[in-house]
Write a structure and sequence with these properties.
This protein is an alpha/beta fold and about 300 residues long. It has two domains: about 90 residues, Medium-chain alcohol dehydrogenases, catalytic domain (Quinone Oxidoreductase, Chain A, domain 1, Alpha-Beta Complex), CATH 3.90.180; about 130 residues, Rossmann fold, CATH 3.40.50. Helices cover about 30% and strands about 15% of the residues. It has a six-stranded parallel beta sheet, sandwiched between helices. The chain is globular and about 60 Å long. The two termini are about 25 Å apart. About 10% of the residues have low confidence. One of its GO terms (molecular function) is quinone binding.
Length: about 300
């Protein structure tokens, strides 16, 4: 409904409701049939990642004027590109070269010098790592459950790697080591309950903590709220599925203008873990449930006759 600029033979991109399989997803800039599988992985994962950074956390590229802090609208652009995508240490760059978020009514700019991304080898996680690299965040810390997954994250732009299984979930010390004891300015978490305490300890002063999943449970038996108060942490939560149509239209329009061209020219990469036919859907779900995937799992459907 309310589709615009769609004509016969024009490729389109669709994000299905909860519980549906996306089986026919085509993008305006992905005109080769060989790229349809990559296109199928874009709507849910990449739109979610883009939304978390720019519409929920409110990241603005370093080049954005200060007046943007006083705007109530989501950022219309995320076009900042990194002139250097190396593994600079936390704090080496001047803060005015970093993306930023705006703090409260005062509009104070808070530089994002470091980010911790949990489940960084997932479909959303691999998109987040690349988008943070694109924004030139100096320190990108990837957290995952195996060294193989972490090596993938490194190829995508992560500067520091944490195997949370190897440290038995106590990752905050490694985060502090990577940030010279400061903690991260931005934390992106789909895990939830089991990581709450360590997440709070990993945050820097005035950090933004975005909670967008509950893979580790929804109930927290014990959590010290004083850490949130003492560090002035912004705890944010969101899900794309419950947003209204106007929000989704704004998100898709911004994403199409700024990110789709970079996916089309391979500046950004859609990471496909595995491809299953529709009759193998059970196997695909089992792979996801066992947390074996690195990137997106895609199902293919036969063309209707």
């Amino acid at each position: 409904p309310r589709a615009t600029s769609v004509f016969p033979s024009r490729f389109v991109c669709r994000c299905e409701p909860l519980g549906a399989f996306v089986f026919s997803v085509i993008c305006p800039l992905l005109r080769s049939s060989s790229l349809f599988l990559q296109a199928a992985a874009i709507p849910e994962n990449w739109l979610t990642a883009y939304q978390l950074l720019h519409f929920v956390a409110g990241l603005q590229p370093a080049s954005t004027p200060s007046s943007a802090c006083f705007s109530s609208s989501p950022p219309s652009s995320a076009t900042a590109t990194a002139d250097s995508l190396n593994s600079s240490e936390h704090g080496e760059r001047q803060t005015d070269a970093c993306p930023f978020v705006c703090a409260g009514a005062s509009g104070r700019r808070l530089p994002i010098r470091s980010v911790l991304i949990h489940a960084a080898a997932s479909g959303v996680g691999t998109a987040l790592v690349q988008l943070c690299r694109l924004l030139a965040i100096p320190t990108i810390i990837a957290s995952a459950g195996s060294d193989e997954k972490l090596q993938l994250c490194k190829t995508l732009g992560a500067t520091h790697l944490i195997n949370h299984r190897a440290v038995e979930g106590r990752f905050s010390e490694a985060v502090k080591n990577a940030t010279h004891g400061l903690g991260v300015d931005l934390l992106l978490d789909p895990v939830g309950a089991s990581f709450m305490q360590e997440n709070a300890q990993s945050c820097a002063l005035d950090a933004s903590w975005v909670l967008y999943g509950a893979l580790g449970g929804v109930r927290v038996p014990s959590f010290d709220l004083q850490l949130l108060f003492a560090k002035r942490i912004r705890l944010l939560s969101s899900t794309l599925r419950s947003q209204d149509l106007s929000y989704r239209e704004s998100l898709v329009r911004s994403f199409e203008e700024t990110i789709l061209p970079k996916l089309a020219d391979s500046s950004l990469r859609v990471i496909l873990d595995s491809i299953y036919t529709a009759s193998e859907a059970d196997q695909a779900h089992q792979r996801l449930e066992k947390n074996e995937n690195r990137g997106k799992v895609v199902l293919t459907f036969p063309c209707p006759s």
